[in-house]
Design goal:
single chain; 213 residues; mainly alpha; 6 helices; 0% strand
Length: 213
């Protein structure tokens, strides 16, 4: 007998949790809070499991205690200093791993940020002759992009008072900034809408069989 809904109990659990989350659209209620706590608990448990199986055990504990790589006792002890935060008299020791993590992280990330966010973007903003080969529109859009970048940078040029030719250029920069903010906001809204569409499709297709798979 073909039932007009799914008989998989995992699908039912997912559908009930989805409807419980959607109940916040009406108002805050106990059903939503229960579903929220379940989601947070599952996410925390899943994160701890991933951390243990993909980080702590294979990278720190197994090489140190099973394979005998004693050199790892140094970073292991430094990592344990994070737990001194819960001991008032020893809480100052947590500054050591934090300082090491920030120093190492800055040294690794700053060159990559400069290369990805500055140098590569500067290279992509250059107007090259091959952009005008065939259709001229790629070259025109490249020129508009370059002018928009220069106008936007002029808006954030605070070394001198904004007057003279810098004033209309900075006004154009504001227009490009607003266009960028609008595009970012639109992308954010569309990403949320895509998540909503996915859940509605799940309810109507996988749970209630209203739309075909």
């Amino acid at each position: 007998m073909n039932l007009p809904f799914s008989t998989d109990w995992w699908v039912w659990i997912a559908a009930i949790c989805t409807l419980a989350m959607f109940s916040i659209l009406y108002r805050d209620n106990p059903i939503y809070r229960v579903a929220e706590h379940i989601f947070v608990g599952l996410a925390l448990g899943y994160g701890l499991s991933i951390t243990w199986h993909q980080a702590l055990w294979p990278i720190a504990l197994r090489p140190l205690f099973v394979e005998g790589q004693l050199i790892l006792i140094i970073p292991f002890c430094i990592g344990l200093l994070f737990f001194t935060r819960i001991i008032p008299k020893l809480s100052w020791l947590v500054r050591i791993p934090i300082a090491l993590a920030l120093g190492w992280g800055s040294g690794v990330s700053i060159p990559r940020v400069f290369r990805a966010s500055i140098f590569h973007q500067m290279k992509a903003s250059l107007v090259r002759p091959e952009m005008f080969e065939g259709s001229v529109w790629p070259g025109i859009w490249a020129i508009i992009l370059l002018l928009g970048i220069l106008a936007t940078l002029s808006y954030f040029f605070f070394s001198r008072k904004e007057k003279g030719p810098l004033t209309p250029v900075s006004k154009v920069g504001i227009v490009f900034i607003m266009i960028g903010f609008g595009a970012t906001f639109g992308l954010t809204v569309m990403s949320r809408i895509s998540l909503l569409i996915g859940r509605v499709q799940f309810l109507l297709r996988d749970w209630l069989y209203i739309i075909p798979k």
